[in-house]
Amino acid sequence: MRQSVRVAVAGMALVGAFIPAGCMVLDALGPSGPRGLTWVYAGDTVLTVGQTTPVAVTVLAQGVPLPAQRLRIEISPDSIRVTVNLPGDSLIACRAGPAALLIRLLHSSAVGTATPDTSIGLHVTGGGSADPRCP
Predict the structure, then answer these.
(1) Beta carbons within 8 Å of 129's beta carbon, 6+ residues apart
(2) Rounded Cα gap, residues 49 and 94, in angstroms
(3) The model scores a pTM over 0.70
(4) CATH number, domain 33-125, options 2.60.40.1080, 3.30.420.40, 2.40.50.90, 3.30.70.1660
(5) SS3 of 129, please?
(6) How many CA atoms lie within 13 A of 17 on its CB side?
(7) Every domain of the chain and the residues it spans
C-alpha cells in the first residue's frame, strides 16, 4: 500500500475515533436529565401518616404524552418519612415531615442517571398510625 493511502486511512480512523468522544464530552457538559421533557405528577404531595397514594407520573415530549415509560422512583433524603411500596407504584406515608420524590427516566441502554430527572416535594402530616411496611 502506498504511503499516501496509509496516511489517508489512518487519518479517517483517527477522525472516526474523535467524533464519538466529542459527542460524549458535549453530553457531559450539557444539562443533566432528558432534554425537552415535561413531568406531570398527579399524585398527592401532602400526605397523612398511614396514607397510601398511587404514584401517577406522565412524561410529555413537546406536550405529547409518551407511552408508558420505565421510571425509577426514589425518596430523598431517605425512606423514613415516605417509602415506596414493593411494586414501586405507590407511596406510603410513614412519619411526619418533608421528603422529596425523585424520578429518573430509565433508558433501555442505561440504568439511569446519577441525578434525578425531576424532584417533587412531599410533606407528611401527623395523623394515623404508621403502615407496617414502613421502615
Answers:
(1) 49, 50
(2) 5
(3) no
(4) 2.60.40.1080
(5) coil
(6) 6
(7) 1-30, 33-125
Residue 42 has phi, psi (to 5 degrees) of -105, 5
**Contacting residues for 40 by C-beta, under 8 A, at least 6 apart:** 57, 58, 59, 60
Is the peptide bond between 135 and the residue preceding it cis, with omega within 30 degrees of 0?
Answer: no
Q: What is the pLDDT of residues 62-106, one digit of tens each?
A: 888 888 778 888 898 878 899 999 888 899 999 999 999 998 887
Distance CA 125, CA 37 (A): 31
